[in-house]
Design a protein that fits this description.
globular; single chain; alpha/beta; 163 residues
Length: 163
């Protein structure tokens, strides 16, 4: 049987999100037994964002009977910004999903924060994109860069709301 791609319907893309979550970040990461380094990066990202009153949601944040892709796109559209997390140990299929979700977020005009381990190879389409590098021996620098990224996102949001 040939593989068939089932694209999103126009109704999914044209309708407003059912609810808006402006003080939320959608985190794209490997689900289901992520590597230890991914867990560490995710923990630090969560701590930094939660210290600013930003709640974190991911693909496990909701369940339901509807199409999984529709649910992901709905979460991306509803949240204020997105964070992608991957390492050199992240499963290739998970990296592919993260990149697809990054593409959806970019298409929706969402601010993107990309976090990766020092040894992770970024796909060529984002090789010119800024990202935050995680090194286990430099966690304070990593936290400082995350704080800087959060400042940038908050400044962007403030300028959009005031302008």
């Amino acid at each position: 049987m040939p593989l068939v791609f089932s694209p999103l319907t126009e109704a999914v893309l044209d309708s407003a999100p059912k609810r808006l979550l402006p003080k939320h970040a959608f985190v794209m990461r490997q689900l289901g037994r992520p590597p230890e380094i991914d867990l560490r990066m995710t923990k630090i990202v969560n701590e930094v964002l939660q210290s600013r009153g930003i709640k974190v949601v991911d693909a496990d944040a909701s369940t339901g009977g509807k199409d999984f892709l529709e649910r992901i796109v709905g979460l991306i559209r509803a949240t204020g910004f997105t964070v992608a997390i991957f390492s050199h140990y992240t499963r290739p299929t998970a990296v592919a999903n993260i990149m697809l979700e990054l593409g959806f977020a970019a298409m929706c005009g969402k601010p993107l924060v990309i976090v990766k381990s020092e040894k992770a190879k970024a796909p060529s389409d984002i090789s010119r994109t800024d990202w935050i590098i995680y090194r286990p021996d430099c966690e304070e620098t990593f936290r400082a860069k995350l704080e800087q990224a959060a400042d940038t996102v908050e400044s962007l949001v403030e300028s959009l709301l005031s302008g």
